[in-house]
UniProtKB/TrEMBL annotation:
Descriptive protein name: S-adenosylmethionine decarboxylase proenzyme
Complex formation: Heterotetramer of two alpha and two beta chains arranged as a dimer of alpha/beta heterodimers.
Similarity comment text for this entry: Belongs to the prokaryotic AdoMetDC family. Type 1 subfamily.
Active site, per annotation: 120 (schiff-base intermediate with substrate), 125 (proton acceptor), 140 (proton donor)
NCBIfam families from the UniProt entry: SAM_DCase_Bsu (TIGR03330)
PANTHER family xref list: S-ADENOSYLMETHIONINE DECARBOXYLASE PROENZYME
Lyase listed as a keyword: yes
Taxonomic source organism: Arenicella xantha
Keywords, alphabetical: Autocatalytic cleavage, Decarboxylase, Lyase, Polyamine biosynthesis, Pyruvate, S-adenosyl-L-methionine, Schiff base, Spermidine biosynthesis, Zymogen
Catalytic activity: S-adenosyl-L-methionine + H(+) = S-adenosyl 3-(methylsulfanyl)propylamine + CO2
Gene it is expressed from: speH
Lineage: Bacteria, Pseudomonadati, Pseudomonadota, Gammaproteobacteria, Arenicellales
Modified-residue entries (Pyruvic acid (Ser)), positions: 120
Record field: transmembrane: none
Post-translational modification: Is synthesized initially as an inactive proenzyme. Formation of the active enzyme involves a self-maturation process in which the active site pyruvoyl group is generated from an internal serine residue via an autocatalytic post-translational modification. Two non-identical subunits are generated from the proenzyme in this reaction, and the pyruvate is formed at the N-terminus of the alpha chain, which is derived from the carboxyl end of the proenzyme.
GO BP terms: spermidine biosynthetic process
């Protein structure tokens, strides 16, 4: 690359910079000095560091992970629609978008990507040739990942949608973690 400033997240993939944060390339070694983006959490009381765990019905857990399988879906090769749907899903869930990265495969037009959130992520993988899309929506704190379901349904119009929920990091009492992991 002949550019002096690049984005760390895209330099290894050989893509052009897409974010405003910049990183310097040492022209003698092509090494990149990364200035990774951070999320400002200064509004949190410094005497107590919030971990954003959730308590629901007496169960403490890290976050809600929703798995969505869309069958008979449409427009699964449309990058613009995918980005719009992810942005709207983040918004209605009350989450904080940090970055979206989408990759368009050829020749079938499938899309793989992720919306990185302060609260975790939404990932997607599509198979337009099968009218199938797999979404993972994982969020902690006050975000509402279940609010993303109608947004994704409206955007991609699936004939059938399968939804499952997993409480990540559920605090199960009296079970010790394995020491060999």
């Amino acid at each position: 690359m002949t550019l002096e400033t690049v984005n760390c997240a895209t330099v290894n993939a050989g893509a052009l910079p897409v974010q405003s944060n910049t990183n310097q390339i040492d022209s003698s070694s092509n090494a990149v000095q990364c200035n990774w983006p951070t999320h400002n959490q200064t509004e949190i009381d410094s005497s107590h560091t919030a971990d954003h765990f959730i308590v629901r019905n007496g169960v403490e857990f890290a976050g809600t992970h929703i798995i969505l399988d869309l069958w008979g879906a449409k427009n699964l090769d449309n990058l613009e629609l995918m980005e719009q749907a992810l942005r709207k899903a983040v918004d209605v869930a009350g989450a904080t978008l940090l970055h979206i990265h989408l990759h368009h495969f050829t020749p079938n037009g499938g899309i793989s990507g992720v919306a990185v959130l302060a609260e975790s992520h939404i990932s997607v993988h599509t198979w337009p040739e099968r009218n199938f899309a797999a979404f993972d929506v994982f969020m902690c704190g006050d975000a509402q990942p279940e609010a993303t379901i109608p947004v994704l349904r409206d955007a991609f119009k699936p004939a059938n949608i399968n939804v499952s929920e997993h409480l990540r990091g559920a605090n199960i009492e009296h079970i010790e973690p394995a020491n060999d992991l």
